[in-house]
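Posting for a labmate who doesn't have an account.
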Amino acid sequence: MNRFKLTPLLAALLSVGLMAAGPVALAADALPPLAVDAAFSAPEMAGKLLNISDLTALKGLKRVAVPLFTVEFITADNVSSQTSGFAAAGRARSSMYYKLLGVGEADFQAITNAMHQSLLAELTASGLEVVGFEQVQAAASYRKMAAGGSAAPSKSSSSMIMAPPGMAIYGFSTASASGGDKGLFGALASIGGSMSAVGAAMESGNLSKELDAGLIEMRLRVSFVQLSNDTKGFFARLGNTASTSGKVFPSIDNVLISVQNGAYRSTVTMKNTLTLDPAAFADVREKATTGADVAGAVALAVFKLAIGSSDSSSYSEMEAVADPVKYKDVVGAGLGSVNTMLVARLKTDR
């Protein structure tokens, strides 16, 4: 049987394409989320949940390096819906905003550091030789990728991308879910960013050869709320009400891993979202209304009355308050299950 060998350019384009598609592409599969609970066995689920584009890069792995390990934590999200305003009916709009409170950069950094160390320990325990990060940093190919990337953490108004101390964020990990549009996980902000990611993916092949090791590059994302546009379908949009809703719980809703072994590159994704224990949150509350909020609402109502608008709108601002200790335990256990599944597949398929 002929094996398909990805050229560096084709491998780069494949990784960027999967990254840009993110959960939008996966949503078409309509796979239900899976709960990480007492009955969840990561080693047993590895073969069912992880999709690997090509096993060729895994074959013969004995020595590996981890030059990239990032976790994006979503800190704010939103959803909107609206009706069509058919005939004389006004257009109805509904918007919902959620913000994560109770945990922050220090907590995210601690979780990321612990998960990175856990991955290295599991790789070693599986029988693989793990190249130290100092040797990775000294490699010319890594320095080139790091120079084209950015320092961690990478922050936006809606997320933080974390990496272990001293590790650069490069390639497909440079993109952030901005503006609450988490459906665009991995989508790059510009053509220039896309070409940068392609260049980094191509350079990974050089780094693999320079270190004489397979490379494991990981990007994980942790969300805290599931939002829904409930005004769906043609007839719903013809109505005079719009509706949105949200459910608060931690989840790992996207996993993107590449394994580069010389000229061969495999992409690993997770088929289902992993839902975690909602007990990680101590409270879910509506944001307190300020005097400025009231004044703004009154001004808008007066303006709509003056112009004779029949449009209506509603919005809510919610706060999900995490319990720092429980959040770190719950999210850490969820991310740890991804590490375990990956190592299990590497052990089985190499």
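Reply:
Got it, the structure tokens are right above this. The chain has a mean pLDDT of 80.
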